[in-house]
Amino acid sequence: MATLGELERSVMDILWDAPDPLAATDIRDRLDGKELATTTVLTVLGRLESKGFVTRERDARPHLFAAATTRAAHMAELMHEVLGTAPDREAVLARFIGQVSAGEADTLRRMLSDK
Amino acid sequence: MTVTWVALAVLAVALAWPVPILLARASWPSRAPATALVVWQAIALAGGLSMLGALFSYGLEPFGPDLASGLAAFPGWVLSGSLPAGTTFLQMFAVSGGILLGLHLVLTLGLTFGRAERSRRRHAQLVQLLSAPMPERPGLRLLDHEAPVAYCLPGTTRSVTVLSAGLVELLDDQQLRAVIAHELAHATQRHHLLLVAFRAWRGSLPWFPIATRALDAVTVLVEMLADDRARQQVPDEALAASIALVASASNTAAVSSLDSGADAAARALAADGDSAERRLTRLITPGRPLGATARAVALVCSAALLAVPTVLIVAPAVVS
Predict the structure, then answer these.
(1) Among 2.40.10.340, 1.10.10.10, 2.40.50.100, 1.10.287.3510, what is the CATH number of A4-67?
(2) Best residue of A4, A100, A109, A111 to probe chain B, by most B CBs closer than 10 Å
(3) Which H or E run contains B128?
(4) Are residues A11 and A50 in contact, defined by beta-carbon separation less than 8 angstroms?
(5) Which residue in A33, B89, B230, B269 could disulfide with A99, CB within 3.0 to 4.6 Å?
(6) Tens of pLDDT along B264-275?
(7) Kind and range of the H or E run holding B151
(8) A4 near B CB under 8 A
(9) Residue A76, Cα to own-chain centre: how many angstroms?
(10) Rounded to whole angstroms, how far apart are CA atoms B78 and B75?
(11) What whole-number distance in Å separates Cα of residue B234 and Cα of residue B244?
(12) What residue spans define the domains of chain A?
């Protein structure tokens, strides 16, 4: 049983891989292994649209959906935040290791090998 | 009341400058991180309390024999548009300063928590879309990225721990368990609340050692606390190895994989300081944990730190 969050991820994967905007029925057909109603897919698309991940062509009948930006752009946004290089973001993550300088990295390696 | 405000002012100055500098230089906190965190919180709270208390009890002196009656009488005087005889300009200045400082502290805390919550929600959405759950390890998500990173994203109900593919590649099974135990400790002990509070504290008083030193110290201390939790589950060597491996690998891979981040990376670098080195040092040459007596003394001192300004503010009203 896929959660709503996992469904959102599957839908985004389809949109990221598609070269052109897709209708909800196309997306439903590509969600293999899941028997879903088109309304469910539309609900998921609506949630993704309100979060800014998906754009909707309202002139088309039926509406066509596309990813707002590429997967790579989202990944870059996430990694900037993870690495603490995102400007004007309140840090919310507890990273295992923060940034280290090249000098410190050498010191750490030496400390471990001298042991 | 003169005695009260002088004592509070002395305490405020002591807690704003020499005390945090001394504690930041002390070596015992790495031997008892939990105790040291309590002391830092006591210093921050007592510092704020005595700053506000000193301003108000000096400024409200003409309004009543003690702070409580002064506070009670103050709005009436202000509304009537006059002041008690003998009120000096400096005293009005102190009262205004106290009100502004109080508002400033509360607002900054609220704003910082609000901003953190917005970033957290956005990040949680990105994690949801970009990472896959790890079936063999419930509660963990795998991010398909070559940079070796591990982090905990705190949540209101449920926290998420994210590992990158690069990290899983880099570490062996035991080292991976060390990292996971470390991150889960952050989540269960809710360290992010402490960090946001101290970040707000620094945001509101950026020029005070009490705020900047406290944030730096608290940041390292929660890492040590999480390390100690991991050490209960894996040998020290595994944790030490994972710290050194992740640190040196992320130094080469992670930052260079992102363009335009160089300036910000340099800033983050300055902020993180020698945290990894200090964590590794205490794993490789462990000092004995701080004795029970010493820990008790530190806790009693913390309680006293909080009690003194509270008593100074409240007691005159109770006595009279």
Answers:
(1) 1.10.10.10
(2) A100
(3) helix B89-130
(4) no
(5) B269
(6) 555 454 445 678
(7) strand B150-153
(8) no
(9) 10
(10) 5
(11) 16
(12) 4-67, 71-113
